[in-house]
Structures are given as structure tokens and as C-alpha cells.
Design goal:
mainly alpha; Tetracycline Repressor, domain 2; Arc Repressor Mutant, subunit A
């Protein structure tokens, strides 16, 4: 279902968005049912009735369309980060609040199911996993550039901003594993709860003592 902002777009832009969504939905269905490597780009384009030229106007590869739902979340994160006002005590808390804000604004009409399929593909398909890693690296670099512009920090000389972003993404992936392992419900409310649990666990993980395993052997 289109939201109010989409309805206000020019007709051409709405058609582009509908085509993009059709490519994502069809790709995820084909990749899940047939297998990622067994589905050709020609088959995907034929199923949506678009040309490969149209496909490449929207996505760079099969991996790109497969990861689109999760990439949309992080693109939204960058948008929010570019305007976020520091209301939290620490950089990491501000980053966590920004992710939760984006998750709360995700569309309710199927995003959760698409995102869970994307995550499962990344877990089972090496090329999508590699694409995901490259995308995460770009997000970190873009986020560092935004932080450098807006705040009194220098990621070139101080590793802490980079580490804060790496911790954020690691906690996100931990929550995503928990979320997609559920039978139900798979929705953004549950994802937000799993994210909060992962974020809450971060300080303890950083300070967790290492104790030797006790055995019953004499």
C-alpha cells in the first residue's frame, strides 16, 4: 500500500517505485523458491516484464536487489543521521536511537517478510553475503563523513567513532539473527524489541570477564 508521501510523487516516479518493488518482491520469491544461483537475471526480468536495461537503472546486480530491503533501512539511517539532533549522552546511544527511529518508520506492508528473506539469503549465499559486507562498509564510511561534518570529532585520528558504528552494526546483525529465527511474529515491532535487547547487552559484552570452564575431572 502506497503511503501519503508516495501518492504525492509525480506519476513517472510512482511508476519507478512500483517497478522497483515488483523487482524486489519477485526476486525474493524466485531466489527463495528456486535458489539464488539457479535464478537468472533474464528469468527475473521476464517474470516482472521489464527489460534488463530497466533492471540496471534500478539495481546493480542480483545481489543488490536481493539485499534491497535491508539496504533501504540503512539508507534511511543515513538520511536520519544527517539531520539527527544529539539528544543522547553518547555517540553510540545516538546511533542506536537513530536505527530504532528508522525501524519505527518502516512500511508495514510486507517489509518485515522481505527483510527476513534478504537476511536468510545473505546467510546461505556467499555472493549476497559479500555484497552485504561491502554495503555495510559503505554505510560506515558515509556515516563517518556525516559525523565529521556535524560534530566535533575526527575519525581520521580517533578510532572511537568507527568503533561505535562497528558495534552498532554488529548489534544489529545479532538482533537480526534473533528476529529471523522466530516462527512469528516477524514484524517491525518485534525487530525493535530485539534491537533494544541487543543494544542493552553491548556494555556487558564489552566488560564481560573471561572465566575458564570448570570440569568435573579430578
Amino acid at each position: 500500500m502506497a503511503d501519503a508521501a508516495t501518492d504525492r510523487l509525480p506519476l513517472r516516479e510512482r511508476k519507478k517505485l512500483r517497478t522497483r518493488q515488483a523487482l524486489i518482491d519477485t526476486a525474493l520469491e524466485l531466489f527463495t523458491d528456486r535458489g539464488f544461483d539457479q535464478t537468472t537475471l533474464d528469468e527475473l526480468c521476464d517474470a516482472v516484464e521489464v527489460s534488463k536495461r530497466t533492471f540496471f537503472r534500478t539495481f546493480t546486480s542480483k545481489e543488490d536487489v536481493a539485499m534491497a530491503p535491508l539496504q533501504d533501512l540503512w539508507t534511511g539511517f543515513l538520511t536520519e543521521l544527517s539531520a539527527a539532533e544529539p539528544g543522547s549522552d553518547t555517540l553510540l546511544e545516538m546511533l542506536q536511537d537513530t536505527v530504532l527511529l528508522v525501524v519505527g518508520r518502516l512500511p508495514a506492508d510486507g517489509w518485515a517478510e522481505r527483510a527476513s528473506r534478504s537476511h536468510r539469503l545473505a546467510q546461505s549465499t556467499p555472493s549476497t553475503a559479500a555484497h552485504n559486507l561491502q554495503f555495510c562498509d559503505r554505510i560506515v564510511r558515509d556515516a563517518l563523513a556525516l559525523l565529521r561534518e556535524r560534530y566535533d570529532l575526527d575519525p581520521a585520528t580517533d578510532p572511537q567513532p568507527r568503533l561505535a558504528l562497528d558495534i552498532l552494526i554488529a548489534a544489529f546483525h545479532c538482533a537480526l539473527d534473533t528476529w529471523t529465527a522466530r516462527n512469528n511474529p516477524i514484524d517491525t515491532t518485534t525487530l525493535a524489541a530485539d534491537l533494544r535487547n541487543a543494544f542493552t547487552a553491548v556494555p556487558g559484552a564489552l566488560a564481560m570477564p573471561l572465566r575458564p570452564r570448570l570440569t568435573d575431572e579430578p
